[in-house]
Write a structure and sequence with these properties.
Blueprint (H helix, E strand, L loop, with lengths): L5 E7 L3 E7 L5 E8 L11 E2 L1 H19 L6 E8 L4 E5 L9 E2 L7 H7 L9 H4 L8 H11 L1 H9 L2 E5 H9 L9 E3 H4 L5 E2 L4 E2 L1 H6 L9 E3 L22 E6 H8 L8 E5 L3 E8 L10 E6 L7 E8 L3 H9 L9 H6 L9 E3 L17 E3 L7 H25 L7 E4 L6 H11 L3 E4 L4 H13 L6 H7 L2 E5 L5 H16 L7
Parallel strand pairs: 1-5, 5-13, 9-12, 14-20, 20-21
Antiparallel strand pairs: 1-2, 2-3, 4-7, 6-8, 10-11, 14-15, 15-17, 16-17, 18-19, 21-22
Helix pairs in contact: 4-5, 9-14, 10-12, 12-13
Length: 504
């Protein structure tokens, strides 16, 4: 048997699936990535094909092993990180989904959320779950499938249906699928369902009853890193070898771990399809007064769970993709920076990408995207710049909300695909008036769940090992005059109000 030299991370995101291999120093030893289809059946609806996602997972695993020339026996363990809240229900006997996966951005459950809020308001379950009633979360999506797919409700009543976010779906298939696959989810993913009690770390009977969800469909809740492991990969699967599956983290919590934010007060911001700022608040949940989410940050083995405050922004990198795919103004996402650099500023233009409503700190499902401040002077360069700046402005709103909860920020660790956009990172530092720090491994989501899996099997011995791996790649410092900063931000806040009340 070859010695274990790597940990594998499967990162199943909103637009693509990736498999990465990491060595003991947290360095990338191999990577493969493939996109999957985005399905839009109706305005505001977003779906994925779960079978396609499983196929892409198999393909990227086999590709990375081949290209990195790594034998499966050299992998110590496997971690799964995933787009959170994306919801599916499948037949446990066949593995066939009853419906497409309903993506976290999807807004079809607005009426259901509004009806649930008639008793107790939008914060009806916030004390228990840390979350407002919003279309974002998994519970209402699961209820929609049960209500609109007759065979799904029938199978659930008979105990033949399994629910999960994408982590649960992949772990089930990796560990055997219909032939004994493990039906589990970790505390971070469970905390995004509107169904888990934050302090008990168990499914909440009141929430389940209110949403008419039978407990039999729910996965077992486990720690994010589990020395007992949940099962081994099967010889018929993409690894063709028995490897422990032992790490599971929602993608934003995985980035928190990958950025080694293990002390209360440490924060990271991930720039992906959406944008998500998490701040470690320690082993006691902190309930926000300013529109932030209270969530589980991670739980290692049988230690106490660590909690976080989160500011969730629905559309950031997805706006660049929309700019590319829907408008055709660029052919590759990376070209938006060059286009934005053709102008000196936004020309008075603001782009509020409320395509799926507004998340933190507003939680307005009635909002829709607006492009404001247009004049004959404005060209595509200004619009490109406004699209990039929208991300930075939204992050400032979240950080100001954290400040209202009594926490100040002295610097920001950043990660995700958009951190390679130098113009955006400089503007982010300018509009926040704090340093912005990019680590040497920017894809900290995959790294974080690799850490979780590696800790479970002793590949790393503790958190100090992980802290030693973290290195700075680049730091941006603010360069904008204070009056300019505040004038630009004031314009953004005005633009945001123009997106309200669009959906009756």
């Amino acid at each position: 048997m070859p010695a274990a030299r790597f940990v594998a991370a499967i990162d199943q995101g909103t637009t693509s699936t990736r498999c990465m291999l990491f060595d003991r120093k947290g360095r990338v030893a191999g990577v493969a990535q493939k996109e999957h289809r985005q399905i839009y059946p109706e305005p505001g609806w977003v779906e994925h094909d779960p079978v396609e996602i499983w196929q892409r997972t198999c393909e990227v695993v086999e590709q990375v092993l081949q290209e990195a020339e790594v034998r499966p026996g050299e992998i110590a363990g496997i971690g799964i990180t995933n787009q959170r809240e994306t919801t599916l229900l499948w037949d446990k006997e066949t593995g066939k989904p009853f419906y497409n996966a309903i993506v976290w951005q999807d807004t079809r459950t607005k009426e259901l959320c509004d009806s649930l809020a008639l008793e107790g308001g939008i914060d009806r379950f916030r004390t228990k779950t840390g979350l407002p009633l919003a279309t974002y979360f998994s519970g209402p999506k699961l209820r929609w499938i049960l209500d609109h797919v007759p065979e799904a409700r029938q199978a659930a009543v008979k105990g033949n249906a399994l629910f999960g976010n994408i982590d649960t779906w992949l772990i089930w298939w990796l560990t055997g699928g219909p032939s004994g696959g493990r039906h589990i989810t970790d505390v971070t993913n469970a905390s995004r369902t509107l169904l888990m009690n934050l302090e008990a770390l168990e499914w909440d009977e009141e929430c389940l009853s209110a949403m008419r969800i039978p407990p039999s469909v729910l996965p077992r809740i486990v720690s994010s890193s589990d020395p007992a492991t949940w099962g081994d990969t099967q010889s018929a699967g993409p690894f063709h070898h028995a490897i422990p599956v032992c790490g599971d983290l929602g993608d934003q919590q995985a980035a928190l771990v990958g950025q080694v934010c293990f002390d209360p007060g440490e924060a990271k911001n991930t720039y992906g399809t959406g944008c998500f700022l998490l701040m470690n608040t320690g082993i006691t949940p902190v309930h926000s007064r300013s529109g932030l989410l209270t969530t589980v940050g991670y739980r290692f083995a049988d230690q106490a769970a660590v909690y976080a405050l989160e500011g969730s922004i629905a559309i950031t990198g997805a706006l660049v993709q929309w700019f590319r795919d829907n408008l055709g103004l660029i052919s590759q996402s990376s070209e938006i920076e060059d286009l934005a650099r053709t102008v000196e500023d936004n020309g008075g233009t603001y782009f509020v990408p409320a395509f799926s409503g507004l998340f933190a700190p507003y939680w307005r499902s009635d909002a829709r995207g607006v492009l404001v401040g247009l004049t004959r002077y404005v060209n595509k360069g200004h619009i490109a710049r406004a699209a990039l700046e929208a991300t930075a402005y939204q992050v400032r709103e979240v950080i100001e909300a954290i400040g209202e909860d009594g926490v100040s920020l002295s610097g920001l660790k950043v990660d995700g695909g958009m951190v390679h956009n130098e113009l955006l990172m400089q503007f982010q530092s300018d509009i926040l008036n704090v340093p912005v720090v990019r680590p040497s491994v920017a894809e900290t989501t995959s790294l974080g769940v690799a850490y979780a899996a590696g800790l479970a099997v002793g590949f790393w011995t503790g958190l100090d090992d992980l802290r030693r791996n973290w290195e700075v790649d680049r730091t941006w410092y603010p360069q904008l005059e204070a009056d300019t900063r505040e004038r630009l931000y004031k314009g953004w806040l005005k633009a945001v109000t123009r997106s309200f009340d669009w959906v009756e």
